[in-house]
Design goal:
About 35% of the residues lie in helices and about 20% in strands. With about 750 residues, it is α/β, with parallel strands linked by helices. A hairpin with a 2-residue loop joins strand 17 and strand 18. The protein is globular and about 80 Å long.
Length: about 750
């Protein structure tokens, strides 16, 4: 018997091996195989082959699992992603499997994921022996961390005491570590001293607390019923709900119904940072232990627990709160998938391959496993809007905000006017500064939005005008004052600023442009008594940073929030009453056919963060073009008008959703070689496809990490046989590797590069 094995190599095929094990071969088992000159590779069985191949096959070295940890549904998904996005299935597997699946050099197998149990801890003595507690704490007088761990245990116990039990309850290790700053080593030390007992238990064996009842308004109930109708006819549902309309409550109601039916629910969010606030809301509504988190910043044990719980029905139903990688989980028993803020570009994977879009993959999965799917947004992507108009999606609308709150008042301020009149206070126009002052006087919160992190994006010599570039990329480096470093936001390299200009040897420098760090500094000077918080990818890098930020915002410890697009991705700030949007024109001038769509989405989402309770929000957009059609559409909340206008332009100029686009990127360390390779490839594509081939051309940033770039764009008319055209494209691209001149050129294909 022979098996087809998926291996983590960039090849568009599987590999055949001889099965010589006593265990029955089953798709989804991980195996250890010999491959090429490498000693071993971890692979996954895709299918069984009864017929002897016409070539000699190496035997399987070792089976790594006692039962399949990967479902057939997942393997089918990998194959679909490989075919649709034109990438090797081995690269898909590499991206899909978390680290705990991958073979380490020290591993000898067989390997198991465990049974989904988690370490739990309990006080060793009976409740009646109350004197033991004070006695132990006196013994731990010098062991501060152990004392803290024990104190955390009793504090958690105070909310979970069972009066009928003679012992204190079992508390999960994960909860203890999250509650305090201690580590597992302190808990083990208490075990060695005999003060705590340890048991491996399933979290859901404990009594699950009841969540608060989810009460929906009349409009939310109507939307909920309409979503159910969409599910009944087997269509993806597009939930277009105004910001602050209560889409999250509808998601939770859907999840609650699914969990009661015994199935899991999957809720995808565009930003890992959002999980902290959303986790608390879900836990409050659904009850303790019914929600799990899955993303790259979660610990390996947390992700392993989620994976195992989806494989093991004994752990009970869960709502999985995940970033885009959640689509690779075993989802056979999932009853509903929700993609929150479906328009967000964060759902698109750009680097490394596979370059998939989690929203589109989720729609495909829902069809295969026959579960309901909801795509939610106040500003849907143009593709989703078009699909709804074409009746491919079932459209449901929430047109009013939750409660009595009104849509925000949006005001345009001309920067040209206020700068010419010298009515500026730092980056703020005088009316914007006065508005913040009034809001602070009412103990309300203000948001200042600048979609650029760092202190200053350019550092130039005042003598000759030379701008300091990245050494490996064709972009200027950004100055970060907090770290006193120049950083490249493309390759991540950083260095100390130059003292002398390499062009003229001058030593006078000027920082140009403005980032969030500089905004924060300016606001501190303008409003010295205000508490200012900056939220961007730099400040929110640590795992629990966003949890702390949200807590400070909710408790009123923050007066002014400075942030990038991160804060426009679904964060609910109850006390936020105004927003000031700086440099709105940058988003409108991006060299991208989606710039107007994304600018509308971004500004509308930021505006929607304000006035979420009773007070009407107030938004000021500072711009040099206050009459720009996109800004006027934002001001009027005219999404439909804007979307129809964009669709008409795209129909006229042949852009998605009316055509399929493919971007081919070529990379090489030598510019001449990559240019010649791009011309060679483009000529072949033109001969094969005729029109619809654009380029080759240099992108706006033509060198990244010392690799020179060339782009070729292709447009395929909808209705043509895309699978056949993609297969032809794959063969043409593969042909470049048979050319001795271009074999070293790296080629990346991005299907739907938007």
């Amino acid at each position: 018997m022979w098996v087809e094995v998926i291996l983590p190599v960039p090849v568009h095929s599987t590999f055949t091996y001889f099965w010589n094990e006593s265990l029955e071969p089953i798709p989804g088992l991980r195996v250890h195989v010999s491959f090429g000159r490498q000693n071993c590779l971890m692979g996954v069985i895709q299918k069984i082959q009864e017929n002897r191949p016409d070539f000699d096959c190496k035997p399987i070295l070792r089976v790594l699992d006692d039962y399949p940890r990967i479902q057939i549904q997942q393997i089918n998904l990998w194959n679909w992603i490989s075919d649709y996005y034109l990438c090797p299935i081995g690269e898909v597997m590499q991206s899909a499997l978390p680290a705990f699946f991958k073979l380490k050099e020290s591993d000898s197998g067989p390997y198991t994921l465990g049974d989904g149990s988690v370490a739990h801890w309990r006080w060793y003595a009976k409740k009646s022996d109350s004197g033991k507690i004070s006695e132990v704490f006196s013994q731990l007088n010098r062991a501060k961390l152990q004392s803290e761990a024990l104190l955390s245990y009793f504090q958690i116990c105070s909310n979970q005491l069972d009066m009928d039990s003679e012992y204190y309850p079992w508390i999960s290790q994960d909860l203890l570590l999250e509650y305090s700053s201690v580590k597992a080593i302190q808990l083990n030390a208490l075990k060695e001293k005999g003060f705590l007992k340890k048991s491996m238990r399933h979290s859901l064996i404990e009594v699950i607390s009841e969540g608060e009842k989810i009460d929906l308004s009349d409009s939310q109930l109507d939307a909920f019923s309409s979503i159910k109708k969409g599910f009944s006819i087997g269509k993806p549902v597009l939930l277009k709900g105004e910001t602050g309309s209560g889409k999250t409550e509808i998601y939770l109601k859907l999840a609650d119904d699914i969990l009661k039916s015994g199935k899991h629910a999957l809720l995808l969010v565009p930003e890992i940072a959002l999980t902290a606030q959303l986790y608390k809301r879900i836990e409050k509504s659904l009850g303790r232990d019914l929600v799990s988190v899955y993303h790259s910043k979660a610990s390996e044990s947390e992700r392993r627990d989620v994976w195992q719980s989806l494989l093991n029905p004994e752990t009970g139903p869960r709502l999985i709160l995940a970033a885009r990688s959640g689509i690779f989980l075993p989802l056979n028993h999932v009853g509903v998938i929700v993609v929150d803020e479906e328009h967000e570009t964060s759902y698109k994977q750009y680097e490394p391959s596979p370059r998939y879009h989690a929203r589109d993959v989720a729609v495909w999965i829902s069809k295969k496993i026959k579960c309901g799917i909801v795509l939610g947004s106040a500003t849907p992507s143009i593709e989703s809007f078009h699909n709804a108009n074409q009746l491919k999606y079932f459209k449901v609308e929430l047109k009013e905000r939750f409660g009595s709150s009104e849509p925000p008042k949006i005001e345009m301020l001309s920067l040209i006017k206020y700068k010419s009149m010298k009515m500026m206070k730092g980056p703020l126009s005088l009316p914007a500064a006065e508005l913040i002052e009034r809001v602070l006087g009412k103990n309300q919160q203000a948001l200042v939005f600048q979609n650029r992190r760092g202190y200053s994006p350019y550092r130039t010599c005042m003598s000759c005008g030379w701008t300091e570039p990245c050494s490996e990329c064709d972009v200027a480096v950004t100055f970060h004052k907090e770290s006193k470093l120049l950083k490249c936001h493309y390759c991540g390299n950083s260095r100390k600023p130059s003292k002398k200009c390499p062009s003229c040897q001058g030593s006078a420098w000027k920082l140009r442009g403005i980032g969030t760090e500089r905004i924060e500094e300016s606001l501190d000077e303008i409003f010295p008594d205000a508490n200012i918080l900056r939220i961007d990818s730099d400040s929110a890098r640590k795992k629990k940073s966003m949890s702390h930020f949200i807590e400070w915002l909710e408790t009123g410890k923050v007066d002014i929030l400075v942030g990038t697009q991160m804060i426009g991705k679904g964060i609910d700030i109850s006390g936020l009453s105004i927003a000031i949007i700086l440099d709105a024109d940058n988003a409108l001038q991006m060299p991208d056919f989606r710039s107007h769509e994304r600018a509308f989405q971004l500004f509308s989402q930021v505006a929607g963060r304000t006035g979420r309770r009773q007070n009407q929000g107030h938004v000021i957009i500072q711009t040099v073009a206050p009459e720009h059609p996109v800004l006027l559409a934002v001001q009027k909340g005219a999404y439909d008008i804007m979307a129809k206008s964009i669709l008409e332009d795209r129909r006229l100029y042949h852009y998605p959703p009316f055509v399929k686009m493919v971007k081919i990127e070529l990379r090489h360390s030598k510019e001449v070689i990559v240019e010649d390779a791009a011309k060679f490839l483009a000529e072949k594509l033109v001969r094969s496809f005729g029109g619809g081939v654009l380029g080759p051309e240099k992108p706006a940033v033509s060198r990244i990490k010392n690799f020179h770039l060339q782009h070729i764009w292709m447009k395929f008319q909808n209705g043509k046989s895309l699978p056949m055209m993609k297969e032809k494209l794959r063969k043409i691209n593969n042909s470049i590797y048979f050319s001795s001149d271009f074999r070293s050129v790296k080629i990346h294909i991005d299907v739907d590069p938007y």
